[in-house]
Automatic annotation (TrEMBL):
It comes from Lederbergia ruris. Belongs to the MoeA family. Catalyzes the insertion of molybdate into adenylated molybdopterin with the concomitant release of AMP. Pathway: Cofactor biosynthesis; molybdopterin biosynthesis. Residues 190-328 form the MoaB/Mog domain. It holds the Pfam family MoeA_N. Its EC number is 2.10.1.1. Keywords: Magnesium, Metal-binding, Molybdenum, Molybdenum cofactor biosynthesis, Transferase. Gene3D superfamilies: MoaB/Mog-like domain, MoeA, C-terminal, domain IV, Molybdopterin biosynthesis moea protein, domain 2, Molybdopterin biosynthesis moea protein, domain 3. This is Molybdopterin molybdenumtransferase. Its cofactor is Mg(2+). It catalyses: adenylyl-molybdopterin + molybdate = Mo-molybdopterin + AMP + H(+). InterPro entries: MoaB/Mog-like_dom_sf, MoaB/Mog_dom, MoeA-like, MoeA_C_domain_IV, MoeA_C_domain_IV_sf, MoeA_linker/N, MoeA_linker/N_sf.
Length: 430
């Protein structure tokens, strides 16, 4: 008799996975190699930025009080007593009607309080070799000065713990002097693909076989989520081989992912593998499509995700359950896929008892956000995954959906995330 599995809600499955959530340990990573890593500590300004008042222009630094009354009719002449480029400091103390030639980025001399651009003065050289400028407008104290601390004040919190290091964050790390960056050590995720039909990418197609795409897809999803992966290769549908490779992965990795072999077929050995490991099965059927067979087991707090063999089901199972686990590990306060609201771009007339995650491409038309379904909506499909950048969620129920219907959309390429997962808002009987 084939086993009749009882589906659970997405909400329950999410809670069961996150019940085992863990935070990673910390490690120092060279600034050169920290791109895409996650900050282990909040980043606070430990000095003002900029650290001194500086000139935003190539020009002349002056005392505003000396410029009072300057006009076209009453041009005022200032002697140029020093000159400084960025990185140099003038120790000259300006006297009455004196100026210092200053370049962009140079520190404002001690008693100067304004700057005028080169283009706005007339430069003159006296026969005695002295330099002068003629000014035809008055300046206010503070004109054309980038003030110390205007970018960031000492003590300000700038970046939260668990934020992904993007180019801007990297610039801040350099600004505040981090040749070594405190990063969260990512979880190591072991990947085992299962199936006697699977070929390697370099192998030619032969009857009955297909190339393994899930393995590479999941590796890329792990990297996008911020994890590290270890490839355990593809295992034919043979129980003993599968069990021994899962055992090996379990001792070497923080999380183990398998793809395929989780359903009720004759060669679907994952349920038996969990049993032999003495792992506790958390779930093996969720009220969602695709991905209803997504399974999860735990042993000593370590999670085994049994993702479907069907590529689209595998992909969505990862994004909904594995990604948040990885992001939480990396100290994210928003570990779930980012949710936005938009409109459906085409009809979806067939009602689904289970909530459906439709692979879509996002577009903005006349100020409205649309989710455009892409490709064939079947769980065995691989092509639509390459075209999708979001998932439109069609909640399970008795009615279909029509073009322009408002839907929640989960963003696949986003880095910010959501504090809360998408879960069912209405619960009918399962
Ligand atoms: N009698 C039933 N049959 C099935 C049920 C069911 O409830 N009762 N559920 C169906 C659903 S839904 C799904 S989803 C699949 C899940 O199957 P498995 O997770 O056990 O995966 P496999 O049987 O091993 O493979 C399914 C499909 O995916 C292809 N595959 C597998 N691995 C890869 C890979 N690495 N790269 C690309 N494609 C892969 C495989 O060749 C199969 O076509 O079960 C349904 N059946
Ligand atoms: O798990 Mo299947 O993908 O629901 O079609
Ligand atoms: Mg199967």
């Amino acid at each position: 008799m084939v086993e009749n599995r009882k589906p659970i809600w997405i909400k329950e499955a999410t809670e069961m996975v996150m019940h085992f959530k863990k935070r990673g340990s910390f490690e120092k990573v060279s600034l050169d190699d920290c791109d895409g890593r996650f900050l282990a500590q909040p980043l606070k300004a430990d000095h003002d930025v900029p650290p001194f008042n500086r000139s935003p222009y190539d020009g002349f630094a002056l005392r505003a009080s000396d410029t009072i009354g300057a006009s076209r009719e009453n041009p005022l002449t200032f002697e140029v007593v020093d000159e400084i480029g960025a990185g140099s400091v003038s120790h000259y103390e300006l006297g009455s009607m004196e100026s210092i030639r200053i370049m962009t980025g140079a520190q404002i001399p001690q008693n100067a309080d304004c700057v005028i651009m080169l283009e706005l003065v007339q430069e003159k050289k006296h026969s005695n070799g002295r330099q002068y400028i003629v000014l035809k407008r008055p300046l206010q104290k503070g004109d054309n000065i980038s003030f110390q601390g205007e970018d960031a004040k000492l003590g300000t919190s700038l970046i939260k713990q668990g934020e992904k290091i993007n180019p801007g964050v990297k610039a801040l790390l350099a600004t505040f002097g981090y040749p070594e960056v405190p990063c969260v050590k990512p979880p190591l995720v072991g990947i085992i693909t299962t199936g006697s039909e699977l070929l390697r990418p370099e192998e030619d197609l032969v009857p009955g076989k297909i190339r393994n795409s899930n393995g590479y897809m999941i590796e890329a999803q792990i990297v996008r989520a911020g994890g590290l992966y270890k490839r355990y290769g593809s295992v034919a549908d043979q129980f003993k081989d599968l069990l021994s490779i899962v055992k090996k992965a379990m001792t070497e990795c923080d999380i183990v992912i398998t793809t395929g072999g989780v359903s009720v077929g004759d060669y679907d050995y994952m349920p038996k593998v969990y049993q032999s490991l003495g792992a506790e099965l958390l779930f093996n059927k969720i009220a969602m499509r695709p991905g209803s067979v997504t399974s999860c087991a735990q042993k000593d707090g370590k999670l085994f995700f049994g993702l479907s063999g069907n590529p689209s089901a595998c992909y969505i199972g990862f994004e909904l359950y594995v990604r948040p686990y990885i992001r939480y590990w990396l100290y994210s306060s928003k570990p779930y896929l980012k949710k936005i609201t938009g409109k459906l771009k085409s009809d979806f007339p067939k009602a689904n008892p289970f909530s459906r995650f439709v692979r879509c491409k996002l577009s903005i038309e006349n100020g409205h956000v649309y989710a455009n379904p892409v490709g064939l909506d079947k769980s065995g499909v691989v092509t639509s995954l390459a075209w999708a950048d979001c998932l439109a969620v069609l909640p399970g129920g008795t009615k279909g959906f029509a073009v322009e219907d408002s839907v929640e959309i989960l963003m696949l390429e986003d880095q910010e995330g959501s504090e809360d997962p998408w879960i069912e808002s209405r619960f009918s009987k399962l």
